[in-house]
């Protein structure tokens, strides 16, 4: 009887742990993740993170769940020559493994925006 109970609990634990979630958002400089949500992985799929660069400057990231229609395919230094953008995509399959960095402090964002506005006004003179 104890063996049957242990087997039932083990299978329940495996079933519950199979519910893997990924972060889903567009991450941009200064603001961090925009439209942050969570998605549930489908069987056989992986979480993915695509980082986009213009030269060496990070432009944005796309975090999401892979789907059968758009599965995760790792790629390093994949280039779009027309736009000059480079894409790096990584895949993972653990719960919340594509975790975005913590949101930047609002004060830092305001300082950066004020600095950019100051430079813009200075250039107009």
Automatic annotation (TrEMBL):
Residues 19-100 form the UPAR/Ly6 domain. The keyword Nucleus does not apply. Pfam families: UPAR_LY6 (PF00021). Keywords: Signal. Residues 1-18 form the signal peptide. GO terms for cellular component: external side of plasma membrane; protein-containing complex. InterPro entries: LY6_UPA_recep-like, LY6G6C, Snake_toxin-like_sf. GO terms for molecular function: identical protein binding. This is Lymphocyte antigen 6 family member G6C. It comes from Myotis lucifugus (Little brown bat).
């Amino acid at each position: 009887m104890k063996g049957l109970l242990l087997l039932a609990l083990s299978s329940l634990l495996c079933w519950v742990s199979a519910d893997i979630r990924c972060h889903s958002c567009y991450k941009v400089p200064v603001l961090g993740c925009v439209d942050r949500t969570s998605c549930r992985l489908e069987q056989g799929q992986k979480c993915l993170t695509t980082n986009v660069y213009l030269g060496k400057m990070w432009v944005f990231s796309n975090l999401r769940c892979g789907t059968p229609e758009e599965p995760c395919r790792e790629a390093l230094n994949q280039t779009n020559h027309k736009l000059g953008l480079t894409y790096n995509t990584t895949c993972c399959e653990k719960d919340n493994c594509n975790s975005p960095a913590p949101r930047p402090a609002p004060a830092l964002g305001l300082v950066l925006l004020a600095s950019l506005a100051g430079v813009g006004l200075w250039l107009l003179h």
